[in-house]
Design a protein that fits this description.
TATA-Binding Protein; 2 domains; 32% helix
Length: 311
């Protein structure tokens, strides 16, 4: 049965995103809190997204009382196709988190993703649509940065950029790669599971949304977020992690880029939350993903080997 749509905020909130963009971009947007349980909010939100022209391609519960939805739409796919390695921007994630009988809504900022992943378009239409469907109370997660700063983002000298992905191996052909990767992720090899798969139209390019459910804490998506995240709503919309198949080669963004992009204000050292706590994570994520996908890696070493703590 079709659930009723989410309450739509006044049009002025739907138009707030460009003002934020002028002031700088932040990685996450807080939506309108829903006065119902997670299960009810999940159904209502999915119905509202579908009505607004989005497709819910991924749905999973990375931790108790949290559901992460991954969405796409024709505009996002068109943007991805127009961009080199644009599959990383083919989906966006929404976090629904139950707390005190209500459900907190947050999602990754489409404009922030567009800038950080060097997309051809700034996702303005997507930003407007999500603001109307989910609400747009305020952006959060970091001090504002310009699109230009995010386009060339690098946390610190010596750390990776968008153009420095990790090599996850090669395969005999595009079709055989997809078959192998899909089957292994569906089997949840080493706890790494498939959340969504999007084939880009007109290109031999597929993006897989991956649940990093590894028993290795250094390669577990929820534990990575929890180790550096503070406050509510939590930033579980950082998940799932993307794996990109381009022609016959698989890759993923280096954790030293992707984690830093969405948590850019965390200090390298000190305090309860710092990247030093994740010093073993880049290697661990690379190792777990390589093993899960089963591709042939010619060079075993790669960027990110020194971890967050040793640049």
């Amino acid at each position: 049965m079709l659930m009723r749509s989410l309450p739509v905020l006044p049009l002025m909130l739907g138009l707030a995103a460009p003002v934020w963009a002028d002031a700088g971009l932040q990685p996450f947007i807080e939506g309108t809190t829903l006065d119902n349980t997670l299960a009810q909010a999940d159904k209502t939100t999915q119905a509202a997204l579908t009505k607004a022209g989005f497709e819910v391609v991924g749905h999973y519960a990375p931790v108790k009382n949290v559901v992460v939805l991954s969405i796409t739409n024709p505009a996002m796919l068109q943007n991805a196709v127009a961009t080199p390695r644009g599959g990383y921007g083919a989906a966006l994630s929404i976090s629904l988190e139950e707390s005190g009988g209500k459900t907190l809504v947050s999602y990754v900022n489409p404009a922030y993703v567009a800038a950080g992943y060097r997309l051809a378009s700034d996702n303005s239409a997507v930003t407007q649509s999500l603001a109307k469907v989910l609400g747009a109370v305020k952006p959060f997660g970091a001090k504002p940065r310009t699109a230009e700063q995010l386009h060339d983002y690098q946390y610190a000298f010596g750390m990776e950029t968008f153009n420095d992905p990790i090599d996850l191996g090669g395969f005999p052909s595009f079709s055989s790669a997809d078959q192998k990767i899909t089957s292994r992720l569906q089997a949840k090899t080493d706890g790494v599971g498939l959340v969504y798969k999007i084939k880009l139209p007109t290109k031999d390019e597929i993006v897989y949304g991956v649940d990093l459910g590894s028993s290795n804490a250094d390669a577990n998506g929820v534990k990575l977020v929890d180790s550096v995240d503070t406050g509510m709503p939590h930033r579980y919309a950082f998940l799932p992690y993307e794996v990109l198949l381009k022609d016959k080669e698989a890759e993923a963004l280096n954790l030293r880029f992707r984690m830093a992009l969405f948590f850019p204000d965390l200090p390298m050292m000190g305090g309860d939350a710092s990247f030093f706590k994740l010093r073993n994570a880049p290697d661990a994520v690379k190792s777990v993903l390589r093993k899960a996908l089963g591709g042939t890696v010619v060079t075993q070493s790669g960027s990110g080997d020194s971890g967050f703590g040793g640049m």
